[in-house]
Give the backbone structure.
Amino acid sequence: MPWPEIVPLRSRRLLLDPLTVDAAEEMVPVLSDPALYAYTGGQAPTLEQLRAQYAMQVAGQSRDGTQWWLNWVVRWQHSQEPAGYVQATVEDADGVRVAEIAWVVSVPHQRQGIATEASEAMVEWLASCGVQLVVAHVHPDHDASAGVARRLGLHRTETWEDGEVRWERALRDA
């Protein structure tokens, strides 16, 4: 079944704007703070890296056609200022439509509930598109992300993948 076209989403304070390659220009300042990557040992992306990443992501589907890539820039409704992004990778696994979700919020906005609010809007939309299971992988040293997962109703499992803990929530019967 083809995936529906990604659409803008709204929450109480936020606008989730479908990602475009042009968004790289405005997202570099949002994502360039090394504190965002401190617990993983990663590096902040350059403009060229973001452009390449976004060019791949806006394609919407993996080359082999097994995954859909859904990405939104999170903006404040009142100012249109970007504050981060949310994303989902959706695939059908053994007859169950699974979405692996992730969120990144710029350091100045992290204590304002943006990750939770934006992810809630995304999960609600994913459920309306037939997603049955939502999964997030959270670094064990990142308490804020674990808190977001809890507020989304995800439950920590005992599964570890690539050094991160799996959290999940069934949205409907598989």
Summary: The chain is about 25% helix and 35% strand. The longest helix spans residues 114-128. The beta strands are 9-10, 14-18, 67-76, 82-93, 96-105, 133-138, 155-161, 164-170.
